[in-house]
Design a protein that fits this description.
The protein is α+β, with helices and mostly antiparallel strands. The chain has 21 helices and 15 strands. The protein folds into four domains: 31 residues; 153 residues, Orthogonal Bundle (Triger factor/SurA peptide-binding fold), CATH 1.10.4030; 130 residues, Chitinase A, domain 3, CATH 3.10.50; 159 residues, no CATH class.
């Protein structure tokens, strides 16, 4: 009985308990299995201060230094949320370590922040502003007294945390003075403003399907080789109780006062042509919205109450049949109408006597034989609680049942092979021609390839080129830059089978007038890209010379 009641608690509160157990396990791993790390890391004990726990920007980091750096990061984070650093003290994740690495790197580069910079930054923090948006020294002192003093910290610790944060921020600013030459801008313009004219040749696998023949022997051979993967679809039947939204909407009409209160709180949602719409004009829409929300909430509340009664049975029952019996018993006692479903598949959408309710189907397939009662579901037309009554598990399909499925697979595979062969033969013929540009069209005669002229391609007009989301266009997009003018590209795969080839007819560089007109915009864009690349390069070097040994030890367990 005790075991059953424990099981009942686990079933009912599994998410909360899982989260609690996860925290305990993580703390245990860090505490007991990390060399040099003991309870002092969490509880301030006097051990292992000199243990090496990481490497930051090439510098070894002791546990004492790590604690101090973490303290600074905790204060910096707490300032952003106007909270106590205690909430962030025990964070030992990758994000915190990354911030520590950048702070140490800033120290290595001799970067720091002046007293004036620290003070100016503190004065900008919302936590220390008064109603007129001015710095309020009383709020600053209160924050220190409330959030820092209980942790044996003070104003000096806060200032040092800000100083460390500002120093790390200067790492990125080191690269803001990257020099950009006119030649670099000109080359960038040539690349992004160049206009390419090209043609696209498609050998679509679907065009070759009528040439494919699949023998019975091939079908049977494929079946024998893949028998374990050719399974029937699992099916199930269920019984459900519906809590219709329409019924709850009728029971809980929206009062004028409720609608008015909502309108006053959300006036910005009812602005049209720059003018605020009067309540009378939008009242009907608001009532409809609130009515739907109230009905859904009330229906789900009743559904959850019914479902919660079944949690107790889940812990006490010996089998899924007991839970089904309890479902029917409780439904009868509550005078709820039970409705049987027909056989359902995973991709079923329609449910008997209620219409399209894919979430209900999904919930039923999320159950097990031991726990056949589904979670409460917020459906399209109502809330639901359901229970599986019968199942047919997936099993190896009989050959006769999957014969046509296999035929479709082999037909598509053979058609793709024919398309690929045709593309190879076509490319070879064009490549051997003395006039490839003319042969692009001539060589298609007698094949199933299709030729089309692509719109002019330019990086500045990329959205226009890919307009319509044609998969072949996206393939061509990757082929154009790597294809020399007057030549065919390599043959690339079509998502649905077959090949795409392009022929680049010409490339036109931007004129001097076009470049002059666009220079300022391109200079700004290129400058941002160059600075970003420089910052990323610096950070990559810094992190390549850093390692969180505690994290590595934790992951190795």
């Amino acid at each position: 009985m005790v075991i059953r009641r424990m099981n009942n608690v686990l079933v009912k509160h599994n998410k909360i308990l899982f989260g609690l157990f996860s925290i305990i396990i993580i703390v245990a791993f860090v505490w007991f299995f990390t060399p040099g790390v003991d309870g002092s890391m969490f509880f301030g004990g006097p051990a292992s201060d000199s243990s090496i726990v990481g490497r930051a920007a090439g510098k070894e980091l002791t546990l004492k230094e790590y604690r101090k750096a973490m303290q600074k990061q905790a204060i910096a984070l707490a300032l952003a949320y106007n909270a106590s650093p205690a909430a962030f003290m025990d964070l030992s994740n990758d994000q915190i370590f990354a911030r520590i690495v950048l702070s140490v790197a800033a120290e290595n580069y001799g970067l720091t922040a002046s007293d004036k910079e620290v003070v100016d930054f503190i004065k900008t923090l919302p936590a220390f502003k008064d109603a007129k948006n001015n710095f309020d020294n009383a709020k600053y002192s209160a924050y220190i007294a409330t959030n820092l003093t209980p942790l044996n910290l003070g104003a000096k610790d806060l200032e040092e945390a800000v100083r460390s944060m500002l120093a790390a921020d200067k790492l990125g600013k080191m690269m803001e003075n990257a020099i950009i030459t006119d030649d670099e801008i000109s080359l960038f313009q040539d690349m992004t403003m160049e206009k390419t004219s090209s043609r696209m040749i498609i050998f679509d696998a679907a065009s070759f399907k009528n040439q494919v023949k699949v023998s019975d022997k091939e079908l049977l051979d494929y079946y024998k080789a893949n028998e374990k993967t050719l399974l029937t679809e699992p099916k199930l039947k269920g019984v459900y109780i519906k809590f219709p939204y329409s019924v709850y909407a009728a029971k809980n009409p929206v009062k004028d006062a409720e609608a008015k209160k909502y309108y006053e709180a959300n006036k910005l949602d009812y602005i049209k042509d720059g003018k605020e719409q009067p309540f009378a004009k939008v009242k009907a829409a608001i009532v409809k919205k609130l009515s739907a929300e109230k009905a859904e909430a009330a229906a789900m509340e009743d559904a959850r109450k019914f479902r919660d009664k079944l949690y107790n049975v889940a812990g006490e029952s010996e089998s899924g049949n007991d839970q089904l019996a309890a479902f029917k018993k409780f439904a009868k006692e509550s005078k709820y109408t039970m409705v049987d479903t027909s056989w359902l598949k995973r991709n079923s959408v329609e449910v008997a006597k209620t219409g399209k309710e894919p979430l209900l189907v999904s919930a039923l397939f999320g159950t097990t034989e031991r726990y056949p009662v589904a979670k409460s579901v917020r459906g399209y037309s109502g809330a639901f609680v359901a229970c599986v009554t019968d199942r047919i598990a997936a099993k190896t399909a009989d050959f006769k049942d999957v014969k046509e499925q296999i035929r479709t697979i082999l037909t598509a595979r053979k058609a793709a092979n024919l398309a690929n062969e045709a593309a190879r033969a076509y490319a070879a013929k064009v490549a051997a021609s003395k006039n490839p540009a003319a042969e692009v069209s001539n060589a298609l005669k007698g094949t199933k390839g299709k030729l089309s002229k692509l719109p002019e391609f330019c990086y500045d007009t990329l959205n226009e080129f890919t307009k319509g989301n044609d998969p072949a266009r996206f393939v061509a997009l990757n082929l154009i830059p790597a294809t020399a003018t007057g030549t065919l590209s390599r043959a690339a795969d079509l998502p649905a089978g077959g090949k795409v080839i392009i022929f680049v007819d010409s490339r036109k560089q931007p004129t001097a007038a076009e470049k002059s007109k666009d220079k300022a915009g391109k200079a700004e864009l290129y400058g941002q890209m160059k600075k970003s690349a420089a910052v990323n390069s610096l950070q990559s070097w810094i992190f390549s010379n850093s390692a969180n040994l505690m994290k590595q030890q934790e992951n190795a367990r």
